[in-house]
Amino acid sequence: MAKTKTTFFCQNCGTQSAKWQGQCTSCKQWNTIAEEVIQKAEKASWDISQTNTSATIRASKPQKVSEISTNAEARINTQNKELNRVLGGGLVPGSLTLLGGEPGIGKSTLMLQIALQLPYKTLYVSGEESAQQIKMRAQRIHPNSEHCYVLTETKTQHIFRNIVQMQPDIVVIDSIQTLHTDHIESSPGSISQIRETTTELIKFAKETATPVILIGHITKDGNIAGPKILEHMVDTVLQFEGDRNHIYRILRANKNRFGSTSEIGIYEMQGSGLREVSNPSEILLSKNEEELSGTAIASTLEGMRPLLIEIQALVSTAVYGTPQRSATGYNAKRLNMILAVLEKRAGFKLGAKDVFLNITGGISVDDPAIDLAVVAAVLSSNVDITIDKTMCFAAEIGLAGEVRPVNRIEQRILEAEKLGFESIVISKYCKLPKQTYGIQIIKLGKVHDVVKHLFA
Ligand code: TYD
Ligand code: MG
After folding, report:
1. Are 382 and 348 in contact (CB under 8 A)?
2. CA–CA separation, 374 vs 227, rounded Å?
3. Is the pLDDT score of 64 beyond 80?
4. How many Cβ atoms sit within 10 Å of the Cβ of residue 308?
5. How far apart are CA 281 and CA 419, in angstroms?
6. Interval 401-441: pLDDT, tens
7. For ligand 1, is residue 175 a contact (CB within 6 Å)?
8. What residues sit around ligand 2, an ion, with C-beta below 5 angstroms?
9. Which of 83, 230, 305, 394 has the most CB atoms around its CB within 10 Å?
C-alpha cells in the first residue's frame, strides 16, 4: 500500500500548493483552496506494458517535418454538417475535443446522435445515465445503429480495458467530471481527478490516433468546471449554448487547434433529437403577415455566418417613478446608452417611458451592427408606425448619434439580398466594393436622418 499523500488545490484555477491558504496566489480568489488526497501509483493506466496491444499503438520517434505523412490530418466526417463546420472540417484523428454547456442544453443528445450516425465503431461511455436511459434516448433519435456501443462505467482503468478489447474508432466520454482513476484517491469531479483522467485520455488518444470527445459540465459563471488547464490540455473546446426554453442551440468553438474559432453551428431541438439548421435566417424571422409596430430586422454576423434576426421593442408610458428597462438577448447597458443617445439626438422623451427589448428566437447577440435595428424598433414602437417589412438594418450607433460602419458589410448586404429584402440601411461611411446590388442601399449618417427617413 502506497503512502497516502495530500496536496492543496485551488478549485477555481487548479493551482497546486503545499499548504492551505485563504487566497489563491494565482487567481486571487478567496476560499477556493481545498485539500485533496492524491496517491500516485507507479504506472499510468494507459501504459503499453500493461496491455498487450502494442501492435496497435504507435511508439513515437523524432521525425523530419517533411517526412511526416499528411494523411494524419485527414478528417473524420461526423456526418453532421454543423459540427463539421465548427470543427473546421471534421474530427482530427488523435484529437481531444471538449464539449461544454449548461445542464439540459443537449450535450448528451448531440453526442449520442453523432455516435449513432457515424459509420464507424463508436464507444459512448456514460457515467451519468444507465444503459436503459441511453437506449430510450437512442430510440428517439436514431433507432437502429449497428456501430454504436454503450458502456456505463466511470473508472478509467475499466474503460481502457474495454477499449483495448473493442478497438473503437471514436470514443465519447459523458462526462469528464464523473470519471475517476485508481491512481488518485480524491472524489470524481475534483481538480486532481479531472487532470489525471484527462491526461490518461490524451495519452490514449495520441498513441492510438483515436479521437476522443469529452463532455464537460460548466460552472455558474459559464466556465468549464474543473481546472483551467483542462482547456489548455485538449485540442478543441466547444461550447453548446442557447436558451433552454427555446428550441435553438448554438455550437461554437472557443478554442480550435485545427481550425478557426469563428464558425458556429445552429441546431433546433426537436422531439427526435437535434436537427441541423442550415438556413438560420429563415426560421429566426417570423412569417408574420400583419403589420406590427416595434419590429425591425437586423443583418448580423454570428461568427462568420450572416444571420438576419428580428428585434422587437415595446415602449409604453412608465407607471412608476423610475422607468423600466428590460432587454432579452441584448446588452442592457447598451440599450440604456442607445436610449440616452435617442433622448439627446433625436428629441425623444424616453425618460418617462418603459422600454422592453427582445430578440426573437431566444438567441443573444453581441454584434454592435444590430444597434440601428434597435433604434428603429424602439422609435417604431414609440410612435406606433410600422417599419416596412422588406427593409433591414446593419450599422452601429455612436455616442454622438452618428451611424457608424460595421465590419464585413458586403456579406450582410448579400445575405439580406438572398433572403429577398428590398432595402438595407447602412452607414454612409461604409466603403462598398461594388456600386450596384440587387437590393436598394440606403446610406444614412445620423440618428436624426434615420428618424426622418423612417417616419417623416
Ligand atoms: P441532454 O442531452 O440530456 O442535456 P445535457 O446532456 O446537456 O445535460 O438534453 C436533455 C434535454 O433535451 C431534455 O430536457 C429533453 C430534451 N430532448 C428533446 O427535446 N428531444 C430529444 O429528442 C431528446 C433526446 C432530448
Ligand atoms: Mg448529459
Report:
1. yes
2. 39
3. yes
4. 22
5. 8
6. 999 999 999 989 988 888 888 999 999 999 888 888 889 99
7. no
8. 108
9. 394
| Distance in Å, CA 330 to ligand 1 centroid | 26
Q: Quote the percentage of the chain above a pLDDT of 90.
A: 47
**Torsion angle of C-alpha atoms 385, 389, 391, 392, degrees rounded to 10:** 100
The answer, yes or no, to whether any atom of ligand 1 lies below 6 A from the CB of 433, is no
How remote is the CA of residue 240 from the centroid of ligand 2, in Å?
12
Cβ 273 under 6 angstroms from ligand 1? yes
More confident residue, 320 or 108: 108
Instruction: Say which range, 24-28, 245-249, 343-347, has the weakest mean pLDDT.
Output: 245-249
Per-position DSSP letters for 130-149, written without gaps between them:
-HHHHHHHHHHH-S--SSEE
Residue-wise DSSP of 47-95: -GGGSS-GGGSPPP----GGGS-GGGGPPBP-S-HHHHHHHTSSBPTT-
273 CA distance to ligand 1 middle (Å): 8
Q: Is the pLDDT at 48 greater than 60, yes or no?
A: no
Residue nearest ligand 1's atom 21 by CA: 273
Contacts of 198 (CB under 8 A, 6+ apart): 96, 176, 214, 230, 233, 234
Q: Which pTM was predicted?
A: 0.74
SS3 category, 290 = coil
Q: What ligand is nearest to the CA atom of residue 175? A: 2
| Most ligand 1 atoms within 8 A of CB, residue of 141, 269, 272 to mutate | 269
* Whether residue 109 has its Cβ less than 6 Å from ligand 1: yes
273 CA: nearest ligand 1 atom: 22
**What is the total residue count of the chain?**
456
